[in-house]
Design a protein that fits this description.
The protein is an alpha+beta fold. The chain has a single domain, classed as 2-Layer Sandwich (Alpha-Beta Plaits), CATH 3.30.70. The protein has three helices and four strands. A hairpin with a 2-residue loop joins strand 2 and strand 3. It is globular, with a radius of gyration of 14 Å.
Length: 106
Amino acid sequence: MSPTDTSPCLVLLSYDVTKANRSAASRVAHLIYGRADVRVSETRPFIQRAGVVWIGQSVFVVPEPDARELAEKLRGLGAIVTMAPIAVDAIRFEAFRRRALGRRPA
């Protein structure tokens, strides 16, 4: 999905889970990246949703509706979440998306 005037607003979303909360860190990873022992059709990881781009460790560009949902779930798991609306032109957004696809965690 590339941003256009009719696309949802994009949000830069960052999260952090404290070292002391290892079980939450594991659940957060499952929420975002999925689990090897669960079929994608059962629960779709956020990283595989349309328009979600992984920027780096704990940082994503996410369409606004998905960002709100992800933030709520992350906070429910005890993560600290920071979000900010961003504006990225289509060419640069596509460059980030392609670069992220080449290094996306398995």
